[in-house]
Amino acid sequence: MSFNSKYHIDVDFEVPKKLQWYYAPAFFGFWLVLYLSLVNTQMNHMPRPLTRSDEASHPDSFIAQRAEDTLIELTRIGPRVVGSMANEETAVEFLRAEVAKVEAEMSELLEIEVDVQQASGAYMHWEMVNMYQGIQNVVVKLSEKNSTNENYLLINSHYDSVPGSPGAGDDGSMVVTMLEVMRVIAKSGDPLAHPIVFLFNGAEENPLQASHAFITQHKWAKNCKALINLDSAGSGGREILFQSGPNHPWLMNYYRNVPHPFANTLAEELFQAGYIPSDTDFRIFRDYGGVPGLDMAYIFNGYVYHTKYDRINAFPRASFQHTGDNVLSLARALANAPELDNTGAHSEGHNIFYDFLGWFMIFYTETTSIIVNVVVTLLALLGIGISIYYMCLRSGCSWKGVLLRFSLTIAIQFVSLLLAIGLAMLVALFMDAVDRSMSWFTSSWTIFGLYLAPIVFGLSILPALYLEKTKRDPLGLGFRIQLFMHSHCICLIAIMLTLTGLSIRSAYLIMLCILFDIVALIINLVTKWHRKAYLFAIAVTVCQILPFVFFTYLCTVALVTLMPMQGRSGSSTNPDMVIAALVWLFSLMFAGFIAPIIMFFRKTRTIVLCFLGITILFIIIAVTNAGFPYKEKTSPQRYSLIHAHRRLHNADGSARIDESGLYIYPQDRRFEIARDEIDAIGEAHKVSDFCDEEMFCGMPLYNHRWNKARQYSMWIETSESPEIPTEYPLLVLQDSSELETPAQRRFNFSVAGPSHMGIFINVKNDARILNWSFNDTLIREQAEPPYMVYFSYGLDDSPLEFTIDVEKTTSSFDMPTLEIGIGGHWVTQDITAIEKLSSYINRFPSYAYIQGWVGTYETWYF
């Protein structure tokens, strides 16, 4: 066969005729059908939930209907906010009654011990002191009779909920799962080499106070050697294992045997890097107790998380079965694991772990991962080198010529990767600029056109133009397309080695991409299909099926998780950029080796331009009402609102500010969408406008997250004062006394008020805080004032007494030394019973969910 060029060569290589363009839809359709038939179905695949009628034939199995019935009863209590009667009395009585039912049908081989813990304490959370008083835990120890083993398995979930939410998914579902697991184990009489401690903690939403109370103060805490933590960032679906260990890979040996595995290292790293706007008790057990474990949570349907829509009717029964089967399996296995007798001996470093469609688990250590990454890199480079050698041999081109072309395709591929992310980010910036971000929030299908389509266009257009311009190149079309695949592999190798060097374990994802490309390359070299373009393409297509399924599966999981979270991630970040970056990252993995195959079709440029056309079409759709992001009940927009009275005093006791108003904290990017309704209430001012003049902006900030969101939060002065159900918080200076020198003085205070208060402290006139009775981390680390103390109480509502030691070097104590503000939050009230607050909430659009309460903020100088 001969080529016409400036020289004549005889070679043994098939020059392919391009396929007709109308075969391209069938090619794309193949991948779409593969996604819908396999990935989509497995994403939603759940086990058959067992009912009470199945119990006789499955005596040792988790019964989903039992758990569901228990959750119905638990949620009838209503919102279970720390400090409320519902949480501190009714829920505790409910749990004790449920444990008594378990005890009544328990095997005579086992025994149960119940302890209701009340505790007070403090620790640093975020940038604030997190302080609690009289919060409760219901702790149950299940063990063999006369057991002397002092190494326990801890299983934890929380029964409290956020204000206004019945907390069916978060975290009532896990509470009843634990109760049913306890019942099955207790009734079966299975051997328990190690006792199991079931911790029903009563203050997780505050945040994480009850777990801190248990692990630092409870009599059984020091015996807990491993943990199963159960939480929720959604309502139903499949629970994901997103944290393991740390440094205890043996735990995955037991998790790999659960009936329905669902776990991924990527989720762990995203969570620990702070990209997920949540926290769990797992961190407290790890940091304050050194307890290794497994952290599992629901992530699907995060739209109802922390809202009044988190009800039992939003939680599918099959989810109980999925989670119950897994937790029961883990509890039985870990309670008999010999590693619990000496967990320190099995601490070996981090894991890499992931499931494949929920069918099976793969895991190995981080050290093994580094070795595998290096070996795969060397194999890939060797394979590419051999491939280029054969190109030189079969095409008649010199090795310098082929390497020159290879260098050029690497450059084009690298630019294509940048173009792809650039186009996706351009769309994200445009959607934000025209105030149409989050159009995918309810209609997730729009992500295909808004972000996947421009990415595919960016990946393909430059290679298409290059191949069109070089169609008379003596190096055949098949070889030139192979060079683009090799170029993509080189780019992935660079990314993988960079991630590996940064100790990012999720580099395994890139390794898998490269591995399957190597498999295709080896097959083509061994069979000599690399000489025949279409056979080569078929081998690549077949070898890309598994990675395509796996990476689209992971991408879907990531999107299903992160999309609802953008509705509560604050207003400062453009959420479309998050989605664009995520889709681009996964597109490199599931489409990077598929996109070059498009070049085998006629009218390649037209086919690629169709993706640009799809992008434009979806942008048009997104800016119309079809792209409206919110839907009442199923995907609402979130706001937090306080109808507050704030009174700020001067040094002489007079009030410099005395007004009532609404503090509005929008929780997503599209806060302007309800601007008309907000402006109808009154003139809105940015909270940040007050921050230069007043400590913490002079506002009743609920926690430090609110302080970070002050730029986008609003204050609207109102003529109506809030309906405060009890007395305002009362701060009393009990006395002050001189310390070692006249320049040092101790102030003794007490404060009484509602179950949730913020204590804000600043110094004046060159004063410096030497010490105080709160957690001393801020003082010890010499953090700059002002300071915030988040304080809540459960059963113990006695006044909080605290001391502050101050030193002054250039002024006397006759001048103001301290400014102290107290924010009171009545979060346990039924807002429907507060007429004025309800009237303001009702002015918001129907698609908005408002988490509201009444509050006060008052400051004094001392």
Automatic annotation (TrEMBL):
> Where would I find the Peptidase M28 domain in this sequence?
137-330
List required co-factors.
Answer: Zn(2+)
Membrane topology field: Multi-pass membrane protein
Every copy of the Endoplasmic reticulum metallopeptidase 1-like C-terminal domain together lies at: 634-860
Q: Where is the major localization of this protein?
A: endoplasmic reticulum
Q: Which domain of life is it from?
A: Eukaryota
Instruction: List where the protein spans the membrane.
Output: 21-38, 370-390, 402-431, 443-467, 479-500, 506-526, 533-559, 579-601, 608-628
Q: Where in the cell is it found?
A: Endoplasmic reticulum membrane
Q: What residue ranges carry the coiled-coil annotation?
A: 85-112
Q: Does the keyword field hold Membrane?
A: yes
**What are this entry's molecular-function GO terms?**
metal ion binding; metalloexopeptidase activity
What does the entry list under GO cellular component?
A: endoplasmic reticulum membrane
Q: Where is the Endoplasmic reticulum metallopeptidase 1/1-A TM domain?
A: 406-621
Q: Which UniProt keywords apply?
A: Coiled coil, Endoplasmic reticulum, Glycoprotein, Hydrolase, Membrane, Metal-binding, Metalloprotease, Protease, Transmembrane, Transmembrane helix, Zinc
Example GO biological process: proteolysis
What does the similarity note say? Belongs to the peptidase M28 family.
Question: What is the official name of this protein in its record?
Answer: FXNA-like protease
Organism, per UniProt?
Answer: Drosophila erecta
The encoding gene is: Dere\GG21965
